Amino acid sequence: MLDLALLDFLFTSKVQVLEMTQPAIETRALTRKFGNTVAVRDLSLRVRRGEVFALLGPNGAGKTTTVRMLSCLIRPSAGTALVAGNDIIQDALKIREVVGLLPENPGLYPELSAYYTLDFYAKLYGVPASERKRRIRDLLELLGIWERRNEPVGRFSRGMQQKVAIARALVHDPEVLFLDEPTASLAPESAKVVREFIRKLRRKGRTILLCTHNLHEAEQLCDRVAILKTSLLTVGSPTELEREFGTQRVEIQLKRITARILQAVRRIGGVRKVKRGKRTLTVEVDDSSEVNPRIASAIVKAGGKIVWMKQASSLEEAYLKVVEST
Amino acid sequence: MRMDRVWTIARKDIASARKHRYVLYGLIGIPLIFAVLIPLSMLYPVLLGEQITENDLPSFAVPGLEPKQAMALGLVQMSVLMFMLLPAIIPSVISSYTFVGEKVNRQLEPLLATPTTDAELLVGKLMGAFVPAMLSTLISFAGFVVIVDALTFPLFGRLLLPDWISLVVLLVFCPLVGLAATSFCVVISAKVSDVRAAMQLGALSVLPPMGFYFLFTAGIVRLNWLSIVIFGALLACLSVGLLALGRARFGREEILVRWR
Ligand SMILES: Nc1ncnc2c1ncn2[C@@H]1O[C@H](COP(=O)(O)OP(=O)(O)OP(=O)(O)O)[C@@H](O)[C@H]1O
Ligand SMILES: [Mg+2]
Asked: Residues lining ligand 1, CB < 6 A?
């Protein structure tokens, strides 16, 4: 009896470990052609479970095409992919059950209400009647639309429509979420709500693949990013890419800049270049996590008073370097 | 095929269609014309008019009856045949919005992302146009029967409708015409990117019932078992053919990539 129980335990825990380590998305030489144009070529990627992963790339890079292949809307011309452990060609129906998609274009029915829309999709996703009401209410409340649930969505602002579209992608509580430019055309405060929401989903362990042109957003939100231009150019965490391709830059606002401070900063190992503004110093460094604290203490020792220090976004620089070098 | 999913899709299309003002006007107005205006404008003058002689009878008059009765029954049969136009017209009005409109506004992608099979999607979309078309046809026909019987009872001393021909037209021909028309709309929406153009092309669905109607009014075809069976078989072939054609065009990939 005891042995059996132990065996059972070992077995289930092994299955669990397997599930934990198996990637949420794995593509192998995924390729898609439209006539003579190749939209995606030989894309091989792994997205871990619980990861927020961004696809970056210029217009026409194949981001939307990739997302459409992974959500089983179009078939690849060659190669395969697994999403949540299912093959995109053989188990398309199963994949559609467990993934949520926010397409590039929200594609809502303007004549129908937010509630009707979500209820409609929840039924198509097979959400049981007992759960539907609660889930829809939770989502609409979270996104601040509950009060206006019975108005036709055509009357909503762009931002509110985008929120309804996001709620639609989440109505069946999917394991894997594809978001194609979730914050494009949103006002900053709406974009912020959406980003907060993505963070919340991440904490709940959902895997999120998002396409974006907003590099600042990618840097803030994502564990890893891939830069795509038909083929995969590079993949890594924002910091890794910055370290590899970009220069890291820190801006420091001081009460007053003196020659002594300038000299002290220049002397620090790992500082590449110092540019002096009226009251700001812009310092290029090798590795900000190493060098920034040293800069701060050197300035203080030299009698400087720091008003603020800011790490400048350099994923953009890395991105441009990678994309332009091809 | 999971009928609950199919029905969910159909119901949504019906709800969408109802919210378009012109579709709603069409759904109410066209059946009203068929139920009320046609019998009143065609039948009523004959019933009120002078005695008709054998020589005045048009070719569609029913033989073997006294002239006025022959004329009246012929007109009734003509109007019954016109009812096939309803399931030909209404689907094109609805589906130009729910097929082509949704394609143009890119509302199909989120629908295609749901775990429904291509067949469920297709049948759901077809039913969304077919069911309201058939419902309006049935309701309109009921009104037509009441008006015609009220008008003709004094002349015949019995209820003319519903007779077996009208029931065949209503319960066999109309659904077949409706199926052909909705399938035709699917075929069109794969090619057309304009709601109005789709509506106009969709109106071509009236050709088969119009053809039969003209053969009848010209006196070339009489309504008997033979003509009914032949026309029924032709209609069935047409609607099954169009359905197969629509099915071949209706796949996720085709809709997203080639339906432009
Ligand atoms: N249905 C289609 N038919 C023909 N070509 C297509 C089709 N869909 C996409 N393409 C082509 O495939 C390439 C990749 O397009 P895709 O939409 O995937 O790019 P993207 O990275 O999403 O661009 P964006 O940032 O502008 O959204 C483009 O050259 C595009 O023209
Ligand atoms: Mg895109």
From this structure: A 34, 37, 39, 57, 59-65, 104; B 257
